[in-house]
Amino acid sequence: MDIGDSMRLAVRYLQKLGCRHLALYGCNPYASSDPWREKVFLALTGQDGAVFHNRNSLRSAFDQFWPRRESFDGVICASDYAAFSLVRHLREQDPRRLEQLAIIGYGNMLLAQRSDPSITSISDDYEHFGKAALSIYQLVAKEPTMSAVRILLHSRLHVRKTTGFVPFDPGSAETEQ
To answer: How many Cβ atoms from other residues are within 10 Å of residue 120's Cβ?
Structure first.
């Protein structure tokens, strides 16, 4: 998975929506991919202090985010679970703010698809995964001495209600409504 590509996709999409003050929400500093996701987010946005960590629970991320919620117009969540948690807490405490924020999650889980509002999400392109696996097999079958193959798997954007169902054509990356 190309985490850098997926973060660029999320940031470009939110910027196309007019979002200029972005937050990264629910990052677990002990997870394998979240520190890299945070590093790329900071490099792309330069928005220091806009990362809200999930250290013990997603509630801890919300408690950090709550006092600064008016500072942001777009939120990239480290997972669909984090996005669902953010949506739920905002619905309970500030439904008006929920309507004003553009929110993206990662994973394209059924939870994101069926929640109310449905959550825009980024996922791996599993069709591309399958094609890559077949290509690797064909390469190794032809050249058994090959020791390494590197393939970057691109991400797919699933546009839903938390970004107003606004379509996005980023060029080479795929989108789905």
So the answer is: 30
Residue type, 14: L
User: In the numeric block, which tokens belong to residue 108?
Assistant: 């394209």
Tell me the per-residue pLDDT of 73-84, one tens digit each, with 9 for 90 and over: 999 999 999 999
Cα(137)–Cα(41) distance, integer angstroms: 34
- Using DSSP bridges, classify how beta strands 102-106 and 120-124 pair: parallel, antiparallel or unpaired: parallel
Strands (E) located in the chain: 22-27, 51-53, 74-77, 102-106, 120-124, 155-158, 174-176
Q: Are the beta carbons of 7 and 39 closer than 8 angstroms? A: no
Tokens at residue 132, please? Answer: 């890559």
Read out DSSP for 30-84? TSSSHHHHHHHHHHHH--TT-EEE-SS-HHHHHHHHGGGGGG-SEEEESSHHHHH
Determine the pLDDT at residue 39.
Answer: 95
Question: Is the pTM above the cut of 0.70?
Answer: yes
